[in-house]
Design goal:
This protein is an alpha/beta fold. The protein contains ten helices and eight strands. Belongs to the histone deacetylase family.
Length: 295
């Protein structure tokens, strides 16, 4: 079996107060959990020129020269530091590198990314750059013009991603999320499926099967999968109630569709904020292991 590689931001130190709920621990822990099963590489920092293909010049200029003010940082939920910007550059670079890997070898993996709340002109919800939007914009600049499907199964709607592609006929956005969850104001994806709080395995998997029927009818030539594990029961911010077994069944549904369609897959991490940190790490590692089985 071929030994795949994955990109990681574990080498990026994010400066946060000890009490902050952002799970910075998981990026190193997931990389360590998978170390013997794939080649973990440090995600490269993305070039600012690559970001200009997706994000507005005004927004990027502000980040480079001023940073976020207190009100903007509050909306992101993270204090503005140089370490935050550095880590965001490497997370976006990891997704772009994983995208090139997927087009060459069928599967590309970033042990970070999935920052789907970032808009073209602003940061929101722990997200500075929209890594998937940036990757797609760079593919197009390189001459790739295929149809793209974004399967976003994080517990929160991919509002920024929906805005990036709302008028793009070559990108289909699917978001399956907790309806009463953040963001309060939802954007319009190509297909939004909002679930009730505490939705469990059986109901979730039924809803996903129907959603994937619609999404793969788009006949994608490349799939991005935001595989957030904040859908697990006990997550601080997820509001859903999947078991680890249900999470595995979710991932297997997606991977089976990708295999049937015979298209490249880019896997990004998404959210995971469980009250049990070990469950967050186990859930993420399980997803990547299942992807490796597909490869």
């Amino acid at each position: 079996m071929r030994r795949f590689q994955a990109y990681s931001t574990a080498h990026c130190e994010l400066q946060l107060p000890d009490y902050h709920p952002f799970p910075k621990y998981k990026y190193r822990a997931v990389a360590e959990a998978l170390q013997g099963e794939l080649e973990v590489r440090a995600a490269p920092a993305i070039a600012w020129e690559a970001l200009t293909l997706a994000h507005t010049p005004e927004y990027l200029h502000k980040l480079q020269n001023e940073g976020l003010n207190r009100q903007e940082a509050h909306k992101v939920g993270l204090p503005w530091t140089q370490s935050l910007l550095t880590r965001a550059l490497h997370a976006a670079g990891g997704t772009l590198a994983a995208t090139h890997e997927a087009l060459h070898n069928g599967l590309g993996m970033n042990l970070a990314g999935g920052t789907h709340h970032a808009y073209p002109d602003r940061a929101e919800g722990y997200c500075i750059f929209n890594d998937v939007a940036v990757a797609i914009a760079n593919l197009r600049a390189e001459g790739w013009r295929g149809r793209v499907l974004i399967v976003d199964l994080d517990a929160h709607q991919g509002n920024g991603t929906a805005v990036f592609f709302r008028a793009d006929p070559l990108v289909f956005t699917l978001s399956l999320h907790a309806e009463r969850n953040y963001p309060l104001k939802k954007e319009q994806s190509d297909l939004d499926v909002g679930l009730e709080d505490q939705t469990g395995d059986a109901e979730y998997l039924r809803a996903l099967e129907a959603a994937l029927d619609t999404a793969f009818a788009f006949r994608p030539e490349l799939v991005f999968y935001n595989a957030g594990v904040d859908v697990l029961a006990g997550d601080r911010f997820g509001r859903l109630a999947l078991s680890l077994e249900g999470l595995a069944a979710r991932d297997q549904q997606v991977f089976a569709r990708v295999q049937t369609a015979q298209v490249p897959l880019v896997l990004v991490m998404g959210g995971g904020y469980n009250r049990d940190p070990n469950l967050t790490v186990s859930g993420h590692a399980q997803t990547y292991r299942l992807a490796l089985q597909m490869g």
